[in-house]
Design a protein that fits this description.
33% of the residues lie in helices and 21% in strands. Strands 2-1-3-4-5 form a five-stranded parallel sheet, with helices on both faces. The longest helix has 15 residues. By secondary structure, it is of the alpha/beta class. The chain binds flavin mononucleotide.
Length: 171
């Protein structure tokens, strides 16, 4: 069955390690006839959550009109969501955290989704999964399908690229 797949790529390095693994995941998903879309957060200029709580209405919309509304709408419709981050100080990068904060209108309303996590580190990824899993854990009935952890230059690691492609193909 064709699935709706949304990939959130948060590295400022478009075409870098985590983003490349995202591209492989998308390729695999598309080859298996799924509908897959990747968003590079670096390309979407978005503000931080202002904690105004105005999104806590039935419309579930942020008052800030900066391009994230489409991303959040796609996530609500998705069957599969992928969160990808470079590892910064053993944690997710600030851009992904800022994005999660802006998911405040929808974070508890995401329901029955399958999740994949992609990380890219130089050599040590420490505790990077904890915050991402905590965020996913706020949604309803989430299923973590796989974690793909890259170290170093992923383009020189065909087995890792295949792991990401296969995850997308079988998502
Ligand atoms: C601010 C900053 C912090 C970093 N912290 C870590 C770290 O804690 N552990 C690690 O192994 N690499 C660390 N790195 C290296 C990156 O995780 C690594 O280069 C990664 O492949 C970048 O992924 P990207 O190409 O998807 O951006 C850091 C890099 C930056 C810029």
């Amino acid at each position: 069955m064709s699935k709706k797949v949304v990939v959130i790529s948060s590295s400022p390095r478009i075409g870098g390690n985590s983003d490349t693994l995202c591209d492989e995941f998308v390729k695999g998903a598309l080859d298996a006839d799924n509908a897959a879309v990747k968003y590079n957060l670096e390309e979407i200029r978005f503000h931080a959550c202002k904690a105004c709580y105005r999104c806590k209405t039935p419309e579930m919309k942020c008052f800030q009109e900066d391009g994230l509304a489409e991303v959040l709408d796609k996530m609500m419709e998705a069957d599969v969501i992928v969160y990808a981050t470079p590892v910064y100080y053993y944690s997710m990068c600030g851009t992904l955290k800022r994005f999660f904060d802006r998911c405040y209108p929808i974070f508890r309303h995401l329901e029955n989704k399958d999740y994949y996590i992609i990380t890219a580190a130089g050599s040590k990824n420490g505790d990077v999964l904890t915050g991402i899993r905590d965020f996913i854990g706020f949604s309803k009935n989430p299923t973590e399908k796989a974690v793909i952890s890259g170290f170093g230059d992923v383009k020189s690691q065909p087995e890792l690229l295949k792991e990401a492609y296969d995850a997308g193909f079988h998502c």
